[in-house]
């Protein structure tokens, strides 16, 4: 086969697409490679955070010892060597949880099995040795007996914390709202009994304490109620670490945040993100479809219609913060304030709808994504051949029947394409949400068993804002960085799940209406 041909004494490329096809293929390949690198970074940094890495006991040349997990290495200032960063914990003992050590200053690195890592509600982690367990009553336990008793007591404490959480969410909060609305004496008595039960469980958490010792010899008396988990990473097998990794990932997905969003889980943010996107989709889809149908099927195709189309396309490029300011002024202060003055005057000056909430955030993002849905739907309507409309009218169908039974079903895949693009944009927006309803910490999801079950006036958490807050407003960004990677990976997976749902539905509708399979 000749790879070139000579015409008029000159070498020419073979006829075909030319270099543009290769350029396009290379661009697509580069984009996929960058996407794979991004996902790989999020997976390795995010999911790797939950792995129980071994704890090193580092002995320095001067005899000083430290214990911690190696995080990364970097060149020393001036390029005269390298240094290693260790996460040493023990903020309450040492004042910091990080320690940079020059590699030339390290004399020996060991991994003793007795080193303990305690995850605490305050002061971050403790890394050191367990000296003794002092229970509320009974003899003091030391050595392996203390470790075995500690594991049993932590299971009991976890069960009691779960009982307290259930009492708060399922009993106390509904009774408080019932009292605010009705003021019944029966609810007052039930609330007092529930609070007494919570106080009893809290009292059962207190009493026991741990005697801890860092590798530098500093002693610490740690109340057991502040300890969340205790592990010996160096004594764990690979299977034990895998089980612990799965448990930590599940806690990350199912628990609420703590320690200023640098620890704990992101369940309220997951729920808030999905719920807000679903409400936004329910609000934007009918209005976007109706606007597109009017512009393409009903309105006179003149200069005014063309100007409207240009305006809609320009709205798609407006910065999202502008929509946030609009939502704050119109929805929150305008409509929300008016609703408070009409229906919730008794609760003023504390606003009910006159402050940011789930409803106003969903409406703001619906406005933000409305141009995307209109443009995608109108393009789908324009692709439908005119013979489909003319055939329906010729068979005696009215114009409304032609639109509802022929045109709209065939344009449904294009509508879902607009919804997919809207979901992809809305799920990652942060700037407008900061003005119209997102919260740094809202541990209670806006859905519960109290009527009307879905509380649109409540604030909510969002994965994108959670990433922003942990990255820029946290006291220790270095400690929060692994959770930032994990939350970013989770946000990508949530958007992917929502998009795949719409894509599968679109594929089903395309196969059902085969006429538009090529579009």
Automatic annotation (TrEMBL):
Q: Where in the cell is it found?
A: Cell inner membrane; Cell membrane
Membrane topology, as annotated, equals: Multi-pass membrane protein
Q: Which GO terms describe its molecular function?
A: phosphate transmembrane transporter activity
Extract the InterPro entries matched here: MetI-like (IPR000515), MetI-like_sf (IPR035906), Phosphate_PstA (IPR005672)
Give TM segment ranges: 20-43, 266-295, 315-336, 356-377, 406-427, 483-505
What is one term from the GO cellular component aspect held by the record? plasma membrane
Keywords, ordered alphabetically = Cell membrane, Coiled coil, Membrane, Transmembrane, Transmembrane helix, Transport
Query: Could you tell me the Gene Ontology terms of the biological process aspect for this record?
Result: phosphate ion transmembrane transport
Q: Where is the ABC transmembrane type-1 domain?
A: 270-502
Q: Which Pfam families match?
A: BPD_transp_1 (PF00528)
Which superkingdom does the taxonomy of this entry point to?
Answer: Bacteria
Q: Which residues form a coiled coil?
A: 147-204
Q: Which family does it belong to?
A: Belongs to the binding-protein-dependent transport system permease family. CysTW subfamily.
The name this protein carries in UniProt is Phosphate transport system permease protein PstA
Please spell out the taxonomic lineage of the organism that makes this protein. Answer: Bacteria, Pseudomonadati, Pseudomonadota, Gammaproteobacteria, Oceanospirillales
């Amino acid at each position: 086969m000749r790879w070139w041909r000579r015409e008029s004494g000159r070498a020419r490329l073979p006829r075909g697409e030319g270099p543009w096809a290769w350029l396009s293929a290379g661009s697509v390949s580069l984009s996929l490679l960058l996407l794979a690198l991004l996902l790989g970074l999020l997976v390795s940094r995010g999911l790797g955070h939950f792995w129980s890495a071994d704890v090193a006991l580092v002995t320095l040349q001067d005899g000083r010892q430290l214990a911690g997990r190696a995080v990364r290495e970097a060149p020393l200032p001036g390029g005269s060597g390298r240094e290693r960063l260790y996460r040493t914990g023990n903020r309450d003992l040492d004042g910091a949880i990080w320690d940079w050590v020059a590699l030339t200053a390290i004399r020996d690195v060991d991994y003793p099995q007795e080193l303990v890592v305690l995850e605490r509600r305050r002061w971050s982690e403790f890394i050191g040795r367990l000296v003794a367990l002092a229970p509320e009553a009974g003899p003091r336990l030391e050595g392996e007996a203390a470790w075995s008793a500690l594991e049993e007591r932590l299971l009991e404490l976890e069960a009691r914390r779960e009982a307290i959480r259930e009492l708060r969410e399922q009993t106390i909060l509904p009774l408080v709202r019932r009292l605010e609305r009705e003021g019944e004496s029966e609810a007052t008595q039930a609330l007092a009994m529930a609070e007494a039960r919570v106080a009893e469980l809290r009292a059962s958490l207190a009493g026991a304490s741990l005697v801890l010792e860092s590798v530098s010899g500093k002693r610490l008396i740690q109340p057991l109620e502040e300890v969340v988990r205790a592990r010996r990473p160096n004594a764990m097998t690979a299977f034990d670490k895998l089980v612990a990794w799965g448990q930590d990932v599940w806690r990350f997905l199912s628990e609420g945040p703590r320690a200023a969003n640098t620890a704990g889980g992101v369940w309220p943010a997951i729920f808030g993100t999905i719920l807000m996107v679903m409400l936004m989709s329910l609000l934007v889809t009918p209005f976007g479809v109706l606007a597109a149908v009017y512009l393409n099927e009903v309105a006179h195709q003149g200069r005014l219609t063309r100007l409207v189309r240009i305006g809609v396309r320009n709205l798609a490029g407006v910065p999202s913060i502008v929509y946030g300011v609009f939502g704050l002024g119109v929805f929150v202060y305008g409509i929300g304030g008016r609703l408070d003055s009409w229906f919730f005057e008794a609760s003023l000056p504390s606003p009910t709808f006159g402050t940011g909430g789930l409803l106003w955030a969903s409406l703001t993002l619906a406005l933000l994504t409305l141009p995307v849905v209109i443009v995608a739907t109108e393009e789908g309507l324009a692709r439908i051949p005119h013979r489909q409309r003319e055939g329906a009218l010729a068979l005696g169908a009215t114009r409304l029947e032609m639109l509802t039974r022929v045109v709209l079903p065939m344009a449904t895949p294009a509508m879902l394409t607009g919804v997919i693009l809207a979901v992809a944009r809305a799920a990652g927006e942060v700037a407008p949400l900061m003005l119209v309803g997102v919260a740094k910490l809202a541990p209670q999801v806006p859905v519960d068993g109290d009527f009307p079950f879905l509380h649109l006036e409540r604030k909510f958490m969002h994965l994108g804002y959670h990433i922003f807050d942990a990255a820029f407003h946290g006291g220790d960004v270095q400690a929060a960085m692994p959770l930032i990677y994990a939350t970013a990976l989770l946000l990508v997976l949530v958007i992917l799940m929502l998009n795949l749902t719409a894509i599968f539905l679109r594929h089903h509708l395309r196969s059902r209406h085969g006429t538009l399979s090529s579009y």
